[in-house]
TrEMBL record, chain A:
PANTHER family: EXOSOME COMPLEX COMPONENT RRP45, EXOSOME COMPLEX EXONUCLEASE RIBOSOMAL RNA PROCESSING PROTEIN. Coiled coil: none annotated. Residues 32-163, 189-255 form the Exoribonuclease phosphorolytic domain. Residues 349-367, 389-398 have a biased composition (Acidic residues). This is Exosome complex component RRP45. Its main location: cytoplasm. Keywords: Cytoplasm, Exosome, Nucleus, RNA-binding, rRNA processing. Residues 368-383 have a biased composition (Basic and acidic residues). GO terms for biological process: exonucleolytic trimming to generate mature 3'-end of 5.8S rRNA from tricistronic rRNA transcript (SSU-rRNA, 5.8S rRNA, LSU-rRNA); nuclear mRNA surveillance; nuclear polyadenylation-dependent rRNA catabolic process; rRNA catabolic process; TRAMP-dependent tRNA surveillance pathway; U1 snRNA 3'-end processing; U4 snRNA 3'-end processing; U5 snRNA 3'-end processing. GO terms for cellular component: cytoplasmic exosome (RNase complex); nuclear exosome (RNase complex); nucleolus. InterPro entries: ExoRNase_PH_dom1, ExoRNase_PH_dom2, ExoRNase_PH_dom2_sf, Exosome_comp_Rrp42_subfam, PNPase/RNase_PH_dom_sf, Ribosomal_Su5_D2-typ_SF, Rrp45. It is found in: Cytoplasm; Nucleus, Nucleolus. One of its GO terms (molecular function) is mRNA 3'-UTR AU-rich region binding.
Automatic annotation (TrEMBL), chain B:
SUPFAM superfamilies: Ribonuclease PH domain 2-like, Ribosomal protein S5 domain 2-like. Keywords: Acetylation, Cytoplasm, Exosome, Nucleus, RNA-binding, rRNA processing. GO terms for biological process: exonucleolytic trimming to generate mature 3'-end of 5.8S rRNA from tricistronic rRNA transcript (SSU-rRNA, 5.8S rRNA, LSU-rRNA); nuclear mRNA surveillance; nuclear polyadenylation-dependent rRNA catabolic process; rRNA catabolic process; TRAMP-dependent tRNA surveillance pathway; U1 snRNA 3'-end processing; U4 snRNA 3'-end processing; U5 snRNA 3'-end processing. InterPro entries: ExoRNase_PH_dom1 (IPR001247), ExoRNase_PH_dom2 (IPR015847), ExoRNase_PH_dom2_sf (IPR036345), Exosome_comp_Rrp42_subfam (IPR050590), PNPase/RNase_PH_dom_sf (IPR027408), Ribosomal_Su5_D2-typ_SF (IPR020568), Rrp43 (IPR033196). Residues 31-166, 193-252 form the Exoribonuclease phosphorolytic domain. This is Exosome complex component RRP43. GO terms for cellular component: cytoplasmic exosome (RNase complex); nuclear exosome (RNase complex); nucleolus. It is found in: Cytoplasm; Nucleus, Nucleolus. GO terms for molecular function: mRNA 3'-UTR AU-rich region binding. Belongs to the RNase PH family.
From TrEMBL, chain C:
Keywords: Cytoplasm, DNA-binding, Exosome, Nucleus, Phosphoprotein, rRNA processing. Belongs to the RNase PH family. The lineage of its organism: Eukaryota, Metazoa, Chordata, Craniata, Vertebrata. GO terms for cellular component: cytoplasmic exosome (RNase complex); nuclear exosome (RNase complex); nucleolus. InterPro entries: ExoRNase_PH_dom1, ExoRNase_PH_dom2, ExoRNase_PH_dom2_sf, PNPase/RNase_PH_dom_sf, Ribosomal_Su5_D2-typ_SF, RNase_PH. PANTHER family: EXOSOME COMPLEX COMPONENT (PTHR11953), EXOSOME COMPLEX COMPONENT RRP46 (PTHR11953:SF1). It is found in: Cytoplasm; Nucleus, Nucleolus. This is Exosome complex component RRP46. One of its GO terms (molecular function) is DNA binding.
Length: 431, 277, 220
């Protein structure tokens, strides 16, 4: 599905508003939208709402063999999924330019900044290391996906706990969380990305652009920084030239924003820890806003079982019992068998044998080619008297089923005439 | 005339037959097409079977390989089913990665294997934690004319019953496996699950063993898998029009009758192969 | 063989729903059953790709997004179940030559996932305001090793059970729209589970009614 294009008048309106230092949602130039961080029931599951942009991150781990050139280091893997839920323009399973860009930027921000101690993820040098996988799902796209993704990813990494492992000789045991407490990752610092968008060839600057603003912007500057004011990555895209002063000013703004966000993340993590320790309710179910008119919740509800057994019994009883006798299959050659056309057929028409012959041959012929090898192996007369074989040619064997088979029960006699009837009707179809 | 009517108004064409309680191919509403089973069709596979249900043709080959058991289940082997719908079987399938129907069929077969417990995966283990059998069950459709799932289940069961695994011993010196191809033994098949597929026409008329055409025009499809004890292994109805519990019961009765019919067929064919040898 | 015995402790876990919580999709809903939660988003009716166009009705596409990794064969079969259930209840002939896309994102899996998918899908379709002939809901039943029926099982209960069945029930006649089962069970057990699911579905439909009433309480 294509995205709805932006109308020219809408574009002009947006740019005019920016020139007048006004934003659509009433924010000031340097304002961030409201950030809300919630956690799921699992360790390492985190939701971030940045205004209406919504992102989910989930961290998982497994034991893998390390890379050859780094035998003592664990592996970090990032995957940003641009789910079609976030925007109709996103397609599933296709690597778009945007998703490649976001993935690379996130890797630069979190992997290349060496914020995670990958050596602590080593279990057996050169053989077994932990691979930490971060899956980021975009749920709603309202601009500035990168910042939301970076907050979600780093918070989820802080929240995550991997199972403990024990090494005895060569055997590695992974302890379930019930036996040994899981271990959090060791993280050195918290890089957070802050995005700036530029308009009118860099004349105007906005922090945290929303989706509409992103559509009319000329260039984007992303700075990843930690609270110690160390820049982890800086990237400018969109092809605009920035002055040194502009970059300096942006980095100053970023340092303020980063310290604010870091504080928020720490607080959110602490709150969650407290809630888990107190044994209270936590997770996604609890984060659902109760007061909203669109939301409703119902407590555990019992289901009556009073007459369930009776109803079930009635239905089973009322149904017709399946017939006890079944037709016998026909075996033309060893290794092959056929069961007739259905059970009861009301088309019990008498039929002359020639038609049946022809019909059966055509069916059998196809089989014959496949099973020729088989057939030739057991060319010798089969012991059962069901079948008469006549060799017409070298290439093909023709098998005629005798219509009346003496050792069949009364039920089966009916089924053999069924075959004739059906064969006849099939014949009619082809006419 | 009839051909033109069929092309222009396929639904009306079928309705006019169903009104008379029969179907365009001359079958009764509750009648299966002729089912032909051939066992041991592929000599290079460890086990194989070819099944024809009317025009629908499905071939199943089983390849057994030695592998290491997983860490989670050190005492078990595993079975990997795969259903392939190549473009040769019908014009509706395109070349390339498996489509939704093929994937759904693969999942269904995997579910049937797991639910029916027709093979205990413990039987496939050779040495705990070290060596086990993996059975790759490749099911390929050669001609698609509806009722794929039934044909696949019969083909799978026939092929598994035909499978002969070589004896494997572990050499104590090299601790490597030694395969004795001369000595082969069959697999233990504990259950005989057989499927029966149904279609619902115009929300009310029920027909069994639908052809591809009938499948396209139907409003709902249902597959019931039962074993020889009359227990249900799967009641698979992916969607479509709703059915009451009473109607479902009808289907189940028909499916149990079908199970007996097919099990008899498989047993007889297997027996005929054995006696002929 | 042990048979199911009627017991009184059959219940649905606490469940809840929030509608139109996302700004981009035309309809969205999150559905929570105990700890299991699913987020659903609907786009459409919208422009359709020529290759997928159906001349007399809308093309419905269902995408299931797992929490970790990429969708696999299991997700494909779940997609098929949800799609065909939705197709049966949607009046898609009112929007010919257009596309409907339903995306289901797993937020947390703690058992009864397929039924949660169905419930979230129905709420999202309602939120999108698409015409439907009936509503539907999903109920999962597990048969415990000792023969007891458990409705809306948790992941731990699913693991212990010997059979697991998920049914979609429609709101008009309480008949079975969809059925997906795992494990082997007797005919009697199946019929009991259907009967229980039909009972449980009444509770869920009552919840649907309540939440819609609450939602439009200010406008009506």
């Amino acid at each position: 599905m294509k995205d709805t294009p932006l109308a020219n008048c809408e574009r002009d309106f947006l740019l005019k508003a920016i020139e007048e230092k006004k934003r659509l949602d009433g924010r000031q130039t340097y304002d961030y939208r409201k950030i809300k961080i919630t956690f799921g029931t699992d360790y390492g599951c985190c939701f971030v709402d940045l205004g209406k942009t919504r992102v989910m991150a989930q961290v998982s781990c497994e034991i893998v063999t390390p890379k050859e050139n780094r035998p003592n280091e664990g592996i970090m893997f990032f995957n940003i999924e641009l789910s079609p839920m976030a925007s109709p323009a996103f397609e599933q399973g296709r690597q778009s330019e945007l998703s490649v860009n976001l993935n690379r930027q996130l890797e630069r921000c979190l992997r290349n900044s060496k914020c995670i101690d990958t050596e602590s993820l080593c279990v057996v040098s050169g053989e077994k290391v932990w691979q930490i996988r971060v899956d980021i799902h975009m749920l709603n796209h309202d601009g500035n996906l990168m910042d939301a993704a970076s907050i979600a990813a780093i918070t989820a990494l802080y929240h995550f706990k991997r199972p403990d492992v024990g090494i005895q000789g060569e055997e590695v045991t992974v302890y379930p969380p019930e036996e040994r407490d899981p271990i959090p990752l060791s993280i050195y610092h918290m890089p957070i990305s802050v995005s700036f968008s530029f308009f009118q060839q860099g004349t105007y600057l906005l922090v945290d652009p929303c989706e509409r603003e992103e559509r009319v912007m000329d260039g984007l500057l992303m700075i990843a920084m930690n609270k110690h004011r160390e820049i982890c990555s800086i990237q400018s895209s969109g092809g605009i030239m920035l002055l040194k002063e502009q970059v300096m000013r942006c980095s100053k703004i970023a340092s303020v924003k980063v310290s604010e966000i870091t504080e928020l993340i720490t607080k959110a993590l602490e709150n969650d820890k407290k809630a888990r320790k107190a044994g209270g309710r936590f997770g996604f179910a609890e984060s659902m806003p109760q007061e909203r008119i669109t939301a409703l919740k119902k407590d555990e509800t019992p289901v009556e079982m009073t007459d369930v057994t009776e109803t079930a019994y009635d239905i089973v009883q009322k149904a017709e019992a399946p017939p006890q006798t079944v037709p016998s299959p026909v075996l033309p050659v060893p290794g092959m068998g056929q069961v007739g056309l259905g059970l009861q057929n009301s088309w019990g028409l008498e039929d002359d044998e020639e038609e049946e012959e022809e019909d059966d041959d055509s069916v059998e012929e196809q089989e014959e080619k496949v099973t020729k090898m088989e057939v030739e192996q057991h060319r010798k007369e089969q012991s059962s008297g069901d079948v008469v074989e006549i060799s017409d040619s070298e290439e093909e064997e023709v098998i005629i089923l005798q219509p009346e088979i003496p050792n069949r029960g009364p039920k089966n006699a009916g089924s053999s005439s069924d075959q004739k009837g059906a064969a006849k009707s099939k014949k009619r179809q082809t006419k | 005339m009839a051909a033109g009517f069929k092309t222009a108004e396929p639904l009306e064409y079928h309705r006019s037959f169903l009104k008379e309680n029969c179907r365009p191919d001359g079958r009764d509403l509750s009648e299966f097409r002729a089912t032909t089973l051939n066992i041991g069709s592929i000599s290079t596979a460890d086990g194989s079977a070819l099944v024809k249900v009317g025009n629908t043709t499905v071939i199943c080959g089983i390849k057994a390989e030695l592998a290491n058991p997983t860490v989670e289940a050190p005492g078990k082997g595993y079975i990997v089913p795969n259903v392939d719908l190549p473009p040769l079987c019908s014009s509706r399938f395109r070349p390339g990665p498996p489509g939704e129907q093929a994937q759904a069929a693969s999942q269904f077969i995997a579910d049937v294997i797991e639910s029916s417990e027709l093979i205990h995966t413990e039987d496939l283990c050779i040495e705990r934690g070290k060596l086990c059998w993996v059975l790759y069950c490749d099911i390929m459709c050669l001609d698609y004319d509806g009722n794929l799932l039934d044909a696949c289940v019969i083909a799978l069961l026939g092929a598994l019953k035909n499978t002969q695994l070589p004896e494997v011993t572990i050499n104590t010196e090299t601790s490597g496996p030694e395969v004795n191809l001369e000595k082969r033994h069959g697999l233990q098949i504990h259950k005989h699950p057989v499927g029966a597929s149904f279609c619902v026409f115009d929300d009310s008329i029920l027909i069994v063993d639908p052809t591809a055409e009938e499948e396209c025009l139907s409003t709902a499809q249902l597959t019931v898998v039962t074993d020889e004890e009359g227990r249900l292994c799967s009641v698979h109805k992916p969607g479509g029009t709703s059915l009451s519990a009473e109607k479902l019961q009808e289907f189940i009765c028909r499916a149990t009758a079908r199970q007996k019919e097919i099990q008899k067929l498989i047993d007889k064919v297997i027996h005929s192969v054995k006696t002929a040898q | 063989m042990m048979e199911v015995c009627g017991s009184s402790n059959v219940s649905l876990r606490e469940f809840g729903c929030e509608q139109s919580l996302l700004s981009r999709p035309d309809g969205s809903a999150s559905f929570i059953q105990g700890d299991t939660s699913v987020l659903a988003g609907v786009y459409g009716p919208a422009e359709v790709k020529v290759s997928k166009e159906i001349y007399d009705r809308a093309t419905l596409e269902v995408l299931v997004q797992p929490k970790v990794g990429l969708p696999s064969v299991r997700e494909r079969s779940q997609e098929q179940c949800v799609r065909e259930t939705c197709e049966a209840s949607l009046l898609s002939s009112l929007h010919p030559r257009s596309s409907l896309t339903l995306i289901l994102q797993v937020l947390h899996d703690d058992g009864s996932l397929l039924s949660c998918f169905l419930n979230a899908a129905c709420m999202a379709l309602m939120d999108a305001g698409l015409p439907m002939s009936c509503l539907f809901c999903g109920v999962t039943c597990a048969i415990h090793a000792d023969g007891q029926i458990i409705t809306d099982p948790t992941a731990a209960q699913e693991k212990e059970s010997r059979a697991l069945m998920t049914f979609a029930i429609d709101s008009t006649e309480h008949k079975v729209l969809m059925s997906s089962t795992k494990g082997s069970f007797s005919v009697h057990e199946l019929q009991q589970c259907i009967a229980v699911s039909q009972k449980a579905s009444e509770k869920i439909f009552q919840f649907y009614r309540d939440s819609v009433r609450r939602r439009y309480s200010k406008t009506l």
